């Protein structure tokens, strides 16, 4: 239980030790002022001098008040015009009356016929013309260090905005100030009225022309609020922009201001429904953003963000702005026939824009990814994407890379596809990474996981040149041969795993141009495997054994001791340096070229059996024609020569001698597989 007696003793101690001495000191200080301070004495007992000074001060105050009340503010128009024109290096005029009302809790000003001209390079069009401008401020908030405007009323404003290709902007009053990307910060406006406003925008870099009307009115009906309605063109195609906001009545700093915005052009449509977090800091807002269109690359002209070419897309997520930083978080949707989700951050920490993206797909259509690499997407009636090179009969895409867009920004990208729809290459997963800085794009990793094996590598694209210069280094590990060579008769033709590497570099605006100008090396190695015995015999053109087994349905197999194809590449032409297929019955060696630019091949394979055969055609296998549909056959001229020789011998000597040209002594030996594989790596 509390002890009242003890509490009372504590209070008395505090009073005696602290409060009484403090009161005594204050009383002593008061007595000293009364006795010694001349100002206090003059105020208590003013003399003639003090009375005169007080009267003069009062008169001056009254005079200032009377002067301000009767002053013709139009007399300041000239000095204001000269000062503003000199400071902002453009013609600024106040051609109408200037009225100021200072004696109010909401001081106000009214300007008529205001004109702000354009900078030196755009003097033919005024940046702003206003017939009448009225504004007021709340005095009590101003004394508290906050600016609030009870009223802003603008009649017939005409705004002209011009942006040049080199980045100059007519509306920047101080062009030397760095562009930080932060939004305009306005004070809270409780009543906004705009009558008959117009806005004209010319953006030369993206070829944008826009004419818009602007209005704002207060009230509670459906017509109240802010409205911007624009129509124009971008790159010669129609462009529309609509921005709607609610009325400004009773708006507060802590109450978000809602808005809706729609931007459509180039087959792309962006819709934002959100709110400005702190009115009216335009650098702070949150909105639900939905965008859809035919190609994500088209949003560069609308937003200035470089994106790759894609099939038709539809995405939605939460867009947040924090001054120069935009975050498109937790978005999801579809690109082509693939799903896509992730997060995107756009920032401007310095002079350059930066974009960082983390993207994911649960199920990827590989044709959609091919579109990103430059292939031309086509959407089937079933909704699937079919990607082509853009040129009939060609494999490599010829769509050029836009190097100018890569130079405008920096950033990173990570993309992962957990699963891939069934495809001819049997790709199961995809993992891609990219880093872009100062016009140089590094791709690392570039990884494709197959049912067995993977393709992994890196690529570097230098886009600082007019024609980009690229270098690639890709390694293939454990890729199953049965995924390359189709089965026959229900049984695999070849089994085993392939290893490979491609190291190429060269100039080229597209993948096709890069291949056409590339230099480097390409190699493919099969350390071991098995091949249908019939086909192994046919490598040596063994008619008796090969065709007999093939036609007889023989499904037995022979060992592939090793297979090595090693090419040097110069000027886009790959020339075989080593081309060996060593099987148990046959050793085959090849020569020839692959033209990467023309996408054709001309290869010759000579086979030698390792055992004596009675019947064998001494003729090489030839593989010729386009990469998309090569022709496989034998050299008919050499076969004809052998047959002719056999016929002549048969007629002159003995019919049995006719078989001699087809007898193979079987002198081929096993290849040194270890040495061949080491040289190819």
UniProtKB/TrEMBL annotation:
It holds the Pfam family AsmA. Residues 50-174, 268-576 form the AsmA domain. The chain crosses the membrane at residues 52-71. Keywords: Membrane, Transmembrane, Transmembrane helix. It comes from the Bacteria. This is AsmA family protein. It comes from Brevundimonas kwangchunensis.
């Amino acid at each position: 239980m509390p002890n009242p007696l003890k509490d009372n003793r504590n209070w008395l101690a505090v009073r005696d030790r602290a409060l009484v001495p403090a009161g005594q000191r204050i009383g002593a200080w008061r007595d000293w002022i009364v006795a010694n301070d001349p100002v206090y004495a003059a105020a208590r007992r003013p003399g003639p001098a003090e009375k005169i000074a007080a009267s003069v001060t009062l008169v001056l105050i009254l005079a200032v008040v009377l002067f301000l009340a009767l002053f013709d503010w139009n007399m300041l128009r000239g000095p204001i015009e000269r000062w503003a024109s000199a400071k902002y290096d453009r013609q600024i005029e106040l051609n109408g009356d200037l009225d100021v009302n200072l004696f109010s809790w909401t001081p106000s000003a009214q300007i008529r016929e205001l004109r702000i001209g354009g900078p030196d390079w755009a003097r033919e069009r005024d940046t702003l013309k206003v017939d009448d401008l009225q504004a007021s401020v709340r005095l009590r908030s101003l004394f508290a260090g906050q600016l609030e405007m009870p009223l802003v009323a603008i009649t017939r404003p005409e705004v002209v905005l011009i942006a040049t290709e080199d980045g100059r902007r007519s509306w920047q009053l101080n062009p030397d100030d760095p562009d930080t990307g932060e939004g305009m910060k306005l004070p809270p406006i409780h009543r906004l009225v705009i009558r008959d406003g117009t806005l004209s925008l010319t953006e030369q870099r993206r070829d944008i022309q826009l004419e818009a009307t602007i209005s704002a009115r207060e009230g509670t009906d459906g017509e109240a609020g802010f409205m911007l309605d624009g129509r124009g063109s971008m790159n010669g195609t129609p462009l529309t922009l609509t921005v709607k906001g609610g009325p400004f009545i009773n708006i507060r700093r802590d109450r978000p201001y809602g808005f809706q915005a729609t931007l459509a052009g180039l087959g792309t449509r962006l819709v934002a429904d959100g709110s400005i977090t702190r009115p009216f800091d335009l650098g702070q807002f949150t909105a639900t953003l939905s965008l859809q269109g035919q190609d994500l690359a088209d949003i560069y002209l609308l937003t200035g963000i470089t994106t790759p070419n894609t099939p038709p897309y539809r995405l939605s997520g939460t867009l947040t702005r924090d001054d120069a930083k935009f975050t498109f978080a937790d978005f999801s949707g579809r690109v082509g026939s693939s799903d896509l989700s992730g997060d995107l951050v756009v920032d401007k920490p310095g002079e350059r824009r930066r974009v960082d993206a983390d993207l994911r797909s649960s199920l990827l259509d590989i044709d959609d990814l091919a579109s990103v690499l430059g292939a031309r997407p086509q959407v089937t009636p079933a909704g699937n994407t079919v990607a082509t090179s853009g040129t009939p009969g060609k494999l490599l895409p010829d769509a050029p890379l836009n190097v100018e867009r890569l130079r405008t920004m920096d950033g990173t990208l990570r993309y992962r596809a957990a699963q891939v729809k069934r495809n001819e290459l049997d790709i199961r997963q995809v993992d891609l990474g990219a880093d872009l800085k100062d016009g140089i794009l590094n791709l690392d990793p570039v990884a494709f996981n197959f049912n067995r094996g993977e393709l992994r590598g890196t690529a570097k694209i230098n886009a600082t040149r007019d024609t980009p210069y690229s270098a690639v280094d890709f390694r293939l590990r454990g890729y199953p041969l049965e995924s390359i060579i189709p089965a026959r008769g229900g049984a695999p033709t070849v089994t085993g795993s392939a290893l490979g590497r491609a190291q190429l570099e060269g100039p080229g605006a597209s993948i096709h141009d890069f291949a056409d100008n590339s230099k480097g090396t390409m190699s493919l190695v099969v350390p071991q495997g098995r091949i249908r015995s019939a086909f192994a015999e046919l490598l040596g053109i063994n008619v008796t054994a090969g065709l007999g087994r093939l036609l007889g349905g023989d499904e037995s197999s022979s060992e592939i001791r090793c297979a090595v194809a090693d090419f040097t590449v110069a000027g886009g032409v790959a020339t075989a340096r080593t081309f060996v297929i060593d099987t148990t019955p046959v050793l085959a060696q090849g020569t020839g070229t692959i033209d990467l630019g023309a996408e054709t091949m001309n290869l010759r394979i000579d086979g030698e059996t390792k055992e004596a055969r009675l019947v064998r055609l001494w003729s090489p296998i030839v593989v010729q024609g386009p990469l998309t549909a090569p022709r496989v056959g034998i050299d008919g001229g050499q076969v004809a020569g052998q047959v002719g020789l056999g016929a002549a011998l048969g007629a002159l000597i003995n019919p049995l001698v006719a078989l001699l040209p087809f007898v193979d002594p079987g002198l081929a030996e096993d290849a040194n597989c270890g040495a061949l594989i080491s040289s190819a790596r």
